[in-house]
Prior knowledge:
Layout: E1 2-3, E2 10-16, E3 22-27, H1 37-88, H2 103-115, H3 121-131, H4 140-152, H5 156-168, H6 175-187, H7 191-204, H8 211-223, H9 227-239, H10 246-258, H11 262-272, E4 276-281, E5 284-289
Antiparallel strand pairs: 1-2, 2-3, 4-5
Protein name: Pentatricopeptide repeat-containing protein
Amino acid sequence: MLVFGSRNPLFFEFSSIGKKQIRINRVKPSLGVEFSKCRFSFLQKATEFSVFTEKLATISLINCYHNQSEQTPTDSKAVDKKITRKAGKKQHHLWIKRDSAGSGQKALNLVRIVSGLPNEKEAVYGALDKWTAWETEFPLIAAAKALRILRKRSQWIRVIQVSKWMLSKGQGATMGTYDMLLLAFDVDQRVDEAESLWNMILHTHTRSISKQLFARMISLYDHHNIPDKIIEVFADMEELGVKPDEDTIRKVARAFQKLGQADKKKLVLKKYLSKWKYIHYNGERVRVRRCLWGE
């Protein structure tokens, strides 16, 4: 490198040691001219000063270059992160989602169809088959909504017909459908059909029968005054380890009382009814002791 600042130019050599370090070597010019001691000292000081300033300027330039080179990848990474985050908000579904938006209208259409039919199995089943003729898959959601609508309207015969049709198609074999069908049998005085359905449930879904379904069957036998059947259902309930609720226990206790088995009544009440009960008194929930086990 050539540096001006005096009559004679000065030459310097730069050699890199590391990323941010530079070694500066001064090269004396060979001009063949003899200087005086005073002039030589002046030139030496000027040379050292120029070398020092040049060294500072060079180091600052190199530091600036390295800072820019280090900041550029981070900026690009930040831009990449922003781009990937924006792209990640898009959701891609690899499955076909069921459209249940029109299930309510389908359910109302089903209720309207079956409500205007005569009470004949062939006519009802034929209309229900036409209702599903153009469906790619069975409209289970719409059928379940239709059953709830029919239950609210107390059209128990239609509940039985639609439920049986669903089960004949292999659809809707759930505890909710069984519970609704048993309730319809109870209201429509079809104890024999309820019993046959219960036996099928008991042998098919032995370990998965809910407490609600046991309570529904005990209530059916209690409404029709069949105490021995209540004891049979309660025995299956105990064998499967299903704990009855308080209302079911009282029905079982009444069944034992009707059969003349007062001792078993007391045992059942003592086993399943706690000595304490909760009542509401002056707007508060109060715990009180039961008066008598046989109440």
